[in-house]
Amino acid sequence: MLANYGFYLIFLALCCSLYGFLSAILAAYWRHRRFYNSSKLALTATCMLLISAAVVLWVGLFQRDYGIAYVAKNSSNDLPMLYTFTAFWSSLEGSHTLWMLLLSIMGTIAVWTHSKDNEHIMPYVLGSIQAVLGWMLYLAVTYSDPFVANLPAPPNGRGMNELLQNFYMAIHPPLLFSGYTALAVPFAYSIAALCFGDITEGWLKTVRRWSLFAFVLLTAAISLGGRWAYVELGWAGYWAWDPVENSSFMPWLMCTALLHSLLVQDKLGHLKRLSIVLAIAAFFLSYFGTFLTRSGVVSSVHSFAESPIGPNYLYYLSGLILISTAIYAFRAPSILPADTEKVWGFSKESALVVTQFLLLSFAAIIFIGTVFPIVSEALTQQRITVQAPYFNMFAPWVGLGTVVGIAIGQLMRYQSSQMPYAKQVIFGSVLFAIPLSFVLIYLGEVMKTPKTVNLIAQIVGLYLASWAIGCLCGDLFIKLKDLRFQWKLFFKRNLAYFGAWVAHIGVMIAIIGFLGNYRGMETRKTLKAGESFEFFDYRFEVPDGIKVKTEQNATLFAAHVNVYRGETLYQSMEAAQSRYPTKDQTFNEIGIGGNFWHDIYIVLVDFDKTDGKRVTLQVNINPTVRFVWTAIVIMCLGGVIALFDLYRGNKSRDAVAGAWEVKA
Amino acid sequence: MIRWIFAIVLGFSNAWLGAQSASEMTLTPAATEDTLKNPEAGPVHDYDLKFREIAKELRCPTCTGLSVLESDASFSLQIKSQVKEQMLMGKDKEQVLTYFVDRYGPWILREPPKQGFNLLAWAVPIALLCLGPIAIWLLVWKRNVTVSTHGVRANEPIIAEMQERLQQLRKGN
């Protein structure tokens, strides 16, 4: 019963969206205001209908209405409240609905909060958003309807995927999809600017705000995905260069590149076309990511939903590329750079071009690595694998370029080859970095790295990152000195600079964190209750074998592990295997302890099933993992600070073109 | 000065890239760092650096994104024991990997082989990282663009000129 209403709502949303698309096109073509208003309301109605459809699905989940196939597949009677809520997006149809829901919400917010400067391009914005949304709704109606009936209703559902029953995975998909769909707004504005043939100041302000918002969301979402892999999968890492991880990372890189090209555009009026291309590419890649995850073209630990919907995503992707390229090819000549007097040469704008180069080539390498197995197999009929070692080969060099680029680029000035105080800051940081990197090396116990190559890489990396932190601090000091240390003025006017500064410090801390991967250690031991073993300054003791516990819907077989440092008890942890009633399989519940400098990561690999008195433990020492989590928080914080910069772009520099010609 | 630092760093990085891929080819001698005794293992145990080097290069056939070293799937365990067998026969890293490629195809390696069509996967990124900076150098850094403004924009010389003219007018009055 409920299922019928749900489908009806989605179908209505599709009709609304199609109408919205057509009226937006007409409004744009005739410059007709009433059609525009009507289209705006159509998008709002689509959003409301999708919200209602989502509520219907949630009601179905909470009422355990197994007459809906999706509910029967993804929940069961014993599922806790939180996971019943998140079961909404635990497989294909639901996450598709979530994607549409978030896109319609983002689109609605974007069209109701647009600035006056942008009014003339809003019909195109509406049209672009509706074109994406309409296609997704069409797919929802034809291929991935979440409300397919399952009658007669079974008494219990099949249960939610056990790996997804984790706090981080509960909030990861909505965040990631919010990031993806927030990128739809810069995309729509880019298409609109191309169609209209001009970029105004208001365009820049809006696109900057939305891409910054998407940047924060994507940063948080990607790291939550990594955190989920770290605490749930048990291979002691957070990033495996898995295709799905890559496909969430590529839009992030594009979004970051977009932010930097918008900066040049804002200051100098150049790189306008690059910004447009990047905004389109960022959204294209986020859509490509959705395609990779859903189509089953590549296998991944993160793909929980595969279906025949794949080819349809591909059609849409190719359509998206074709149409965007065509629009760009025909309309790009109308987007002109500003008449800025002196640009490029040895100056900050050139440094920002280097940033673009690093980010884009990194994205290109990741793209090649992700799609190469598919292409190679299609062309040579030979299956090959591209995994972590390939990416790890190139990533350090991009990282090196990033560190040096950020450190020196920050000190440069626009339209000028002068670098005030550059010598003092750069050479001062060379000295400052010595004690800082020494502290990092000493406290991080870097010298214990077994392999010499890795040791050298770490020492060089830590030194350069410390040097870059020195340069960044020096630059902040110069900026403040120029303002005669008027803090109020600084925080009123320079929040964009300060946010970027915080985010860049975050990048440096993240790189220090990533370097810890070079010195991870592991061991595996089988021991009886009461026995202990020594590893990396610690003594691990299992006092009393396996204990059986129940936690919500899971049964835990937990081994209590006491970690001693010297003779004193340092920490006591619990590594467990969990078993859910719906599946005959056990899952790792990892014990994570340690301190800021290294995590102690204990996986219960195996235990004696008869008396539980013998356990096999895998112990990893993962250095500086917490640096990475801290760095991500700092980067997000930087993005949020920059979002509050309201000063930028308040005054229109360019004239606003294209008033309405009202036809009643 | 800064240009030189930049150039040196880039040159250095490329040289190092070459060196690293070369060291990937030759086998590093097994370090003596390992002090852990694993009772279950035979003459080659799981913490032997040489064994880890090899096992890291082979993919786990049944999992995604992991090497056999990190995986406990039954297939991976088999491959690991095969690696140990081959090592006991005195083969070095290259020979062991060739043995696996002959049996399973290049698919078993975690990197694409550096030959034929697959060479592209290596050549393109390396070319990108090496040629990109040169292109930027030539197109952007060496170029000082001065756009003719046709007097449209109110830039500083014009403002100065206008103020001068205003003062002259005031004096005239």
Describe how the helices and strands are arranged.
The complex is a heterodimer of chains A (664) and B (173).
Chain A: H1 2-30, H2 33-62, H3 69-74, H4 81-86, H5 92-112, H6 122-142, H7 167-182, H8 184-196, H9 201-232, H10 243-268, H11 272-295, H12 310-331, E1 342-344, H13 348-380, H14 388-411, H15 422-443, H16 452-482, H17 487-493, H18 495-515, E2 521-528, E3 532-535, E4 538-541, E5 546-551, E6 554-565, E7 568-579, E8 586-589, E9 591-594, E10 598-607, E11 614-623, H19 625-643
Antiparallel strand pairs in A: 2-11, 3-4, 4-6, 5-6, 6-7, 7-8, 9-10, 10-11
Helix pairs in contact in A: 1-2, 1-6, 2-5, 2-6, 5-6, 5-7, 6-8, 7-9, 8-9, 8-11, 8-12, 9-10, 9-19, 10-11, 10-13, 11-12, 13-14, 14-16, 15-16, 16-18, 18-19
Chain B: H1 2-25, H2 49-57, H3 74-88, H4 93-104, H5 119-141, E1 144-146, H6 156-172
What does this structure look like?
The complex is a heterodimer of chains A (664) and B (173). Chain A is built from 19 helices and 11 strands. The radius of gyration of chain A is 27 Å and the shape is flat. In chain A, strands 3, 4, 5, 6, 7 and 8 form a 6-stranded antiparallel sheet that branches. A 4-stranded antiparallel sheet of chain A has the order 2-11-10-9, with no helix packed on it. Helix content of chain A is 61%, strand content 12%. Chain A has helices spanning 2-30, 33-62, 69-74, 81-86, 92-112, 122-142, 167-182, 184-196, 201-232, 243-268, 272-295, 310-331, 348-380, 388-411, 422-443, 452-482, 487-493, 495-515, 625-643; strands at 342-344, 521-528, 532-535, 538-541, 546-551, 554-565, 568-579, 586-589, 591-594, 598-607, 614-623. In chain A, a hairpin with a 3-residue loop joins strand 9 and strand 10 (598-607). Chain B is mainly alpha-helical and 173 residues long. Chain B is rod-shaped. The relative contact order of chain B is 0.07. Mean pLDDT of chain B is 72; it is low at 1-41. Chains A and B meet through strand 1, helix 13, helix 14, helix 15 and strand 2 of A and helix 1, helix 2, helix 5 and strand 1 of B. Strand 1 of chain A pairs antiparallel with strand 1 (144-146) of chain B.
